[in-house]
Design a protein that fits this description.
Hypothetical Protein Yqey, Chain: A, domain1; about 150 residues; Arc Repressor Mutant, subunit A; mainly alpha
């Protein structure tokens, strides 16, 4: 069963259980999927679905940060709850040690030695670690290891 089919099934389950919070959050995801399909005229693969979910999680994190800065804890909590609903559909994230060892391996493959080589490392790391680590975490780790 694809990720999208699982999400659709979970929307139905949430409706039966009268879980409006989960139902509404998952409906927002399905509408994002449909929007991309209509705009780009293509059938979404599981990789596309994961990218869309990651984008939605990133947006929710940004909004939660802004709400926190504005002192709106109630709205921040809504965003954090939606993130918690979306995260089970994403691949498991690498731990800090796993991420660091993966980046060390990529650095040795590319032969990078200084910060000038960061572009090469980031290009390869972004492809290899897509979905397994956030771009900011990858970037921070590469900077730390090349410094």
């Amino acid at each position: 069963m694809s990720i999208r089919e699982t999400i659709n099934q979970n929307v139905k389950n949430a409706m039966k259980a009268k879980d409006t919070k989960t139902r509404d959050a998952l409906r927002l995801l399905t509408s994002a999927f449909k929007q991309i399909e209509v705009d780009e005229r293509k059938e979404l693969t599981d990789e596309d679905v994961i990218k869309i979910i990651q984008t939605q999680v990133k947006r929710r994190n940004d909004s939660a940060t802004q709400y926190k800065d504005a002192g709106r804890e109630d709205l921040m909590q809504v965003e954090l709850d939606e993130i918690a609903i979306y995260e089970p559909y994403l691949p498991a994230q690498l731990g800090n040690d796993e991420l660091e060892s993966a980046i060390k391996e990529i650095i040795s493959k590319t032969g990078a030695t200084t910060m000038k080589d960061m572009g090469k490392v980031m290009g390869m790391a972004s492809k290899e670690l897509a979905g397994k680590a956030d771009g900011k975490r990858i970037s921070d780790s590469v900077k730390k290891l090349l410094a």
